[in-house]
Specification:
single chain, about 525 residues, alpha/beta, Alkaline Phosphatase, subunit A, 14 helices, about 35% helix, globular
C-alpha cells in the first residue's frame, strides 16, 4: 500500500470515530465516561490499522544490499569450490538463498560491465566498450582500427538507482564507481569512495587523496574494512526508512595489496590445488569479514528478514593470481572464465533457502530485477535489455527457454603475464561478438571472421570447437547474432589499421612461444 493509501485508510477510520461521537453526543451525562472510553477504543483501532498498513508497506518494499566485487572469479568463494580462500559469511548467505551457476557479466572487464549493470543495456546502446577509449596493445599487432566508444556513462540514462530513488529508497554507493567523476547524479544520495578511477585510490592503505569520504582515513586502515564500516553506519542511520546500498568494493582489483594482519595466517596455510595466492586470500577474507559485520548489524537492528542481499562480480578473476578451472579464460577474455560470475540472492520469505538455478542469466537482468524487488517502475522511454529474475527467485518458473544472451566488444585488450587461456598470446581479447542460447555458445572474431562454437553442457572448458563439424548450429547462432547487432546498431570494426605489421605480429607471437618452451624445459629439469 502506498503512503497515500495509508492516509486514506486513516481518514476512513477517523470518519468512523467521528460518526460514533456524533451518535453518542446526546447521551445523558452519567454515560460520559462510556463515551470517552468508546472514542479512545475507536482511535486506537484507527491507529492500529495505519500501523498494520505501514508494516505491510515495509514488507512489500524490502531494503536492498547489493554486494558487487571487482575481478572476483567464479570459484573464489568457498561455496563455489575454493580450496584456499575463506568466505564463511558469504557461504552462509548463499546457503540461505538461491545460487545461480550460469550467471554472467555483460562484459569481460570493469567499465563496460558496470555500464551494462547500471543501465540495464548491452554495450552497443551505452557505448562504453572498454576501460578508456584509447587503443590497447601495440599498434603493429592490431589488424583493425578499434571502435573507441565513450568512457563516461551518458548522464541522461536512467539507472536502476534513479528508479529506486523515485520509489522512495535512500540510495548509497560505496567503493568503485568508474563510470564518471561523480556517481551522485546517477541516482545516489550518498557516495563514499566513488570516482572515475578503475582501482583503489592509491592502493588499499592511505592516503587516499581527495576521494569522497576517504580523505581522513587512519594510517593503517584497510580500505575494504573502511567501506564495510561505512556500510554499517549507513544501515544504522537509515534503519527507519527503506534503503538500497550498492557496496561496490575495490577488492580484489590490483594492486594485490595484502591485508597485513592476515598475511602470516595464509603463509602458514597449505596451498590448494586450485588456489594458492596469499595476498589474494587476505583481500578476500577482508571482504568476507566485512560481510559478517554487516549481517550482524542487520540482525541487531531486526532488519534481516526485510533485507534482500545480492552478491555478484564485474568480470572474471585476475589471471595471474586466481583460477576459474574448469572454465577457460580470466578477466579480459570472452571465454567462460572471463565472464561467468558467482551470483546469489537471499530474499527471506520469497527465495527458498538452499535453492539453485542453472538458468543462464546476465548482468543486464539485474536492472529490472532490482526494480521488481523495490516495486519501482521501469523507465518508459528507455530500452532495458534484461529480464527480471523475480519469477525464478520466487519459484514461479525455472527457465526463460532459449532466450539469447549477447556480448559485443569492438576493441582490443592486451595480454598480461599469463596468456595460455586466450586465442593468442598478444591479446586477451580482439574485436568480437558472442552469443549464448541454451547450451550453445558462439564466438565471432572480426579480424579473421573466426568462429568458435561450443556446447557448454558437454564442454564447459571450451576445448573443442564445433564450428566446422556442426555448420547448421553455427549458422543459426551467427544469424541471430548478426540480427541482434543490426537491431542495436552495434558498430563492427572493419577499417584496416595502417600501422599493422603482420611480420612484427608473427615475430612477437613466435618469441613468446619460444620463451614458453624454454620455461617448460627449465621447470622439467628442476
Amino acid at each position: 500500500m502506498t503512503r497515500q493509501g495509508n492516509l486514506k485508510q486513516f481518514a476512513g477510520s477517523l470518519w468512523h470515530v467521528k460518526r460514533a461521537t456524533a451518535v453518542m453526543v446526546g447521551v445523558r451525562s452519567h454515560r460520559e465516561p462510556i463515551l470517552g472510553f468508546a472514542i479512545a477504543c475507536l482511535a486506537t483501532f484507527a491507529f492500529a490499522n495505519v500501523t498494520s498498513a505501514a508494516k505491510k508497506t515495509s514488507a512489500d518494499r524490502p531494503n536492498i544490499l547489493f554486494i558487487f566485487l571487482d575481478d572476483f572469479g567464479w570459484r573464489d568463494t568457498g561455496y563455489m569450490g575454493s580450496d584456499f580462500y575463506e568466505t564463511p559469511n558469504l557461504d552462509k548467505l548463499a546457503a540461505e538463498g538461491m545460487i545461480f551457476t550460469n550467471a554472467y557479466s555483460s562484459a569481460a572487464n570493469c567499465a563496460p560491465a558496470r555500464a551494462c549493470l547500471l543501465s540495464g543495456q548491452y554495450t552497443p546502446r551505452h557505448e562504453v566498450y572498454n576501460v578508456g577509449t584509447e587503443a590497447r596493445g601495440k599498434a603493429a599487432h592490431r589488424k583493425l582500427l578499434h571502435i573507441p566508444g565513450t568512457k563516461t556513462l551518458d548522464p541522461s540514462i536512467q539507472t536502476w538507482a534513479h528508479r529506486l530513488q523515485s520509489a522512495g529508497y535512500k540510495t548509497a554507493t560505496m567503493g568503485k564507481w568508474h563510470l564518471s567523476d561523480d556517481p551522485v547524479p546517477y541516482g545516489f544520495d550518498v557516495n563514499i569512495g566513488g570516482t572515475h578511477s578503475g582501482g583503489p585510490p592509491k592502493g588499499y592503505y592511505p592516503p587516499h587523496g581527495k576521494v569522497p569520504g576517504l580523505e581522513n582515513a587512519p594510517k593503517d586502515e584497510y580500505v575494504t574494512d573502511r567501506l564495510s564500516s561505512e556500510a554499517v553506519k549507513f544501515i544504522e542511520s537509515n534503519q527507519d526508512q527503506t534503503w538500497a546500498l550498492y557496496l561496490t568494493h575495490f577488492a580484489v582489483h590490483t594492486p594485490l595489496d595484502a591485508k597485513k594482519e592476515l598475511v602470516a595466517k595464509y603463509e602458514a596455510k597449505s596451498p590448494g590445488k586450485l588456489h594458492q595466492h596469499v595476498a589474494m586470500a587476505t583481500m578476500i577474507q577482508s571482504v568476507d569479514d566485512g560481510v559478517g559485520r554487516i549481517q550482524a548489524e542487520l540482525d541487531e537492528l531486526g532488519l534481516t528478514d526485510n533485507t534482500v542481499i545480492l552478491f555478484f562480480s564485474d568480470n572474471g578473476g585476475y589471471g595471474p593470481a586466481t583460477d576459474m578451472d574448469p572454465l577457460k579464460g580470466y578477466k579480459g577474455t570472452y571465454y567462460e572464465g572471463g565472464i561467468r560470475e558467482p551470483f546469489f540472492v537471499k530474499w527471506p520469505g520469497v527465495v527458498k533457502a538452499g535453492s539453485q538455478s542453472d538458468e543462464p542469466i546476465i548482468g543486464v537482468d539485474l536492472y529490472p530485477t532490482l526494480c521488481d524487488i523495490a516495486g519501482a517502475d521501469l523507465p518508459a522511454d528507455q530500452p532495458v535489455d534484461g529480464t527480471s529474475l523475480r519469477p525464478i527467485l520466487s519459484g514461479q518458473q525455472t527457465t526463460y527457454g532459449d532466450r539469447p544472451l549477447f556480448w559485443h566488444f569492438p576493441a582490443y585488450l592486451q595480454s598480461y603475464q599469463v596468456w595460455d587461456e586466450q586465442r593468442d598470446p598478444l591479446f586477451r581479447s580482439r574485436p568480437c561478438s558472442v552469443i549464448r542460447v541454451g547450451d550453445w555458445k558462439l564466438h565471432q572474431y572480426f579480424e579473421d571472421n573466426g568462429l568458435e562454437l561450443y556446447n557448454l553442457r558437454d564442454d564447459v572448458g571450451e576445448t573443442t570447437n564445433l564450428a566446422q563439424s556442426n555448420p547448421a548450429k553455427t549458422q543459426e547462432l551467427l544469424t541471430r547474432l548478426q540480427q541482434w547487432r543490426d537491431s542495436t546498431n552495434a558498430p563492427v570494426p572493419s577499417q584496416p589499421n595502417p600501422e599493422y605489421d603482420a611480420d612484427a605480429e608473427a615475430k612477437a607471437i613466435g618469441a613468446i612461444g619460444q620463451k614458453a618452451k624454454k620455461g617448460k624445459k627449465r621447470r622439467k629439469a628442476g
